[in-house]
Amino acid sequence: MARVVVNAPARAKRGEVIEIRTLAGHAMETGFRRTQTGELIPRDIITQLVCTYNGVEVFRAELHPAMAANPLLSFTTVATESGTLEFKWSGDNGYAATQSASITVV
Amino acid sequence: MTSRRRFLGLIGGAFAAGEVAAQLDPNIQALRAAALEAAVRKITGGKPVRPGKVKLQVPPLVDNGNTVPLSVSVDSPMTSADHVKAIHVLTEKNPQPYVVSAFLGPRSGRASIATRARIADTGKVIAIAQLSDGSFWSDTVSVVVTLSACLEDGLI
Question: What distance in Å separates residue B107's CA from the closest CA in chain A?
Fold first, then answer.
C-alpha cells in the first residue's frame, strides 16, 4: 500500500559523504482544500521521516502540509561502516512505511 | 484534451477565485506575517537570526506552486564541535508558515537537504539553520508564483 523509494549508493568508501534520496507515494492532503459541496477535506499527511544507520539516528525530518505531494527528501550522511540504512515514515491516520537499504563500506 | 466548454469553465473558475480572494479577511497579510513571526520565534526561542551561512535555492519564478523544488545548504564543517543541528524552511504566504524541519548531526557529513514544497503565493521563502553553538542563521529568497498551490479554496 505504502509505496516508498530510497536511492542510496550500495558501495561507498569509508568516510565518504553519501547522498540519500527518499520518495514516498502519498497525496499529502493539506486539510485546507474543500470538496465541491464546501466541506473541508481532513488533513492526511506524512509527518515524520527518520533515518537510522545501523540503529543510530542520522537524520530526522518533520513534514508539514506545505510539503508537495509524494514528499521527496534528499540528505547526506557519512559512510562509516557496512550495514543497513533504515527509513521510517509515519503520518496521519496511522500511516507507516519502512524501507531499508544495505551499504557496503570499503 | 481541453474542449472549448472546459476552457470556458476554467476561465470562469479563475474569475471566481479572484472574487473569493477579494472576500478574504482584509487583515490576512498582517495575520500571515504574525504567524510567520510566531513560527520564527518558536524555532529560535527569541534569539536573533542573522543572515548568512545558509544558502537557499528556489527557482525565482515558479510556474506551479504545488511542487517547488528547493534545496538548502549551510556552510559548516559538520564536526561534533561545530555542526548544524536543524534546518527549518518557512514560507510567508501559506496558510501555515512551516514547510519542513530537518534535524541533522555531525554524522550528516554535509549540511545540505533538498525537497519539494507547496507555495501558495508570491512571497518570501525563508530557511533558518540552527547551529550547535546555539546561533541561528537564515537566508531569504523572494519567489514569484504564477499558479498557486491551494488556489481553489481561496486561501491565498
Answer: 6
Q: Among A58, A63, A68, select the one facing B67 at the smallest CB separation.
A: A68
- Tell me how many residue pairs between chain A and chain B have CB atoms under 8 A apart: 98
A80 has a pLDDT exceeding 80: yes
CA distance B26 to B1: 38
pTM: 0.83
Integer CA distances (angstroms), A53 to A48, A104, B4, in order: 17, 12, 55
CA of B68: which chain A residue's CA is closest? A68
* Identity at B129, one-letter amino acid code: A
| Between B148 and A48, residue with greater pLDDT | A48
What per-residue confidence (pLDDT) applies to B121?
85
The CATH class for the domain spanning A3-29+44-105 reads mainly beta
Segments making up each domain of chain A, as ranges: 3-29+44-105
For residue B108, give its domain range.
Answer: 2-145
Q: What is the CATH number of the domain that holds B17?
A: 2.60.40.2470
Number of H helices, E strands in chain A: 0, 8
Q: Is A106 on the interface with B (CB under 8 A)?
A: no
Each residue's pLDDT tens digit, B31-66:
888 888 888 988 888 889 999 889 999 998 988 888
